């Protein structure tokens, strides 16, 4: 059984370097998809350069999307409303995920297909590939902010999702599978692609490293990611992001209801961890090499 690791790319060169190094011993092919449009619809330069990763060059399949998805909402000479912006973002995200199909054309039915955002790194030492069967696999990951050792300990992150190729209908469907195993008597699962009975959740299944960026880079990311419509009304600036990073505080309330207006004004304090906390030796080595990305004060 081969493992195909599928992810998207915006401009996260360092994170991809970490990803390739951690997963190299397990993965047969890395599928990397990049679009010439951001989630907000802005035209962008291609940032991924396969020559930056010579050690993994033979494993990388780099796919470029150079067109917008069909069915975008357009209003001539008018500013799009927040809902329309969000719906357009979802179409671009779905396009990026489903474009990964081109990268697994040579995969066999029993090969293992993983889907992650590139800052979601699964711990494959926790998975017995011989016992997957027809299950969908969800990796429950530790959640880190700003630095590799600043833990957001209020919740774990359900990140990487995976299954055998024969179970994969669409990548966007795989991404949206609910993080819950539904009982046999839930008849609604018969008609749902996202509610599944055959789910296996891998506890302590890796790491989600979000916003490992400078304030300037983070502001650019938030201005272009899927929820850019919300961010535009948040009044968050580069300076306020700089202040949050300095104080080791999150800026987003992950428990806020969709209708809550102040979900961009959280101040929960992150927990600093010592490096020995990490169980994966390779991860510890890589983190020690990331100058400035470890909190030591």
Chain-averaged pLDDT: 84
Helix count equals 7
Q: What's the architecture of the domain at 3-208 in CATH terms?
A: Alpha-Beta Complex
Helix content: 10-25%
Descriptive notes:
The protein is α/β, with parallel strands linked by helices and 297 residues long. The chain has a domain of 206 residues: Alpha-Beta Complex (Spore Coat Polysaccharide Biosynthesis Protein SpsA, Chain A), CATH 3.90.550. It contains seven helices and eleven strands. The strands form two sheets. Strands 1, 2, 3, 4, 5, 6, 8, 9 and 10 form a nine-stranded mixed beta sheet that branches. It has a two-stranded antiparallel ribbon with strand order 7-11. The radius of gyration is 19 Å and the shape is globular. The chain starts with a strand and ends in an 8-residue tail after the last helix.
Layout of helices and strands:
Layout: E1 3-9, H1 13-23, E2 29-35, E3 60-65, H2 82-98, E4 112-115, E5 120-122, E6 136-145, E7 150-151, E8 157-164, H3 171-175, E9 199-202, E10 206-210, H4 215-224, H5 228-231, H6 238-247, E11 271-272, H7 281-289
Parallel strand pairs: 1-2, 1-4, 2-3, 6-9, 6-10
Antiparallel strand pairs: 4-8, 5-10, 6-8, 7-11
Helix pairs in contact: 4-6
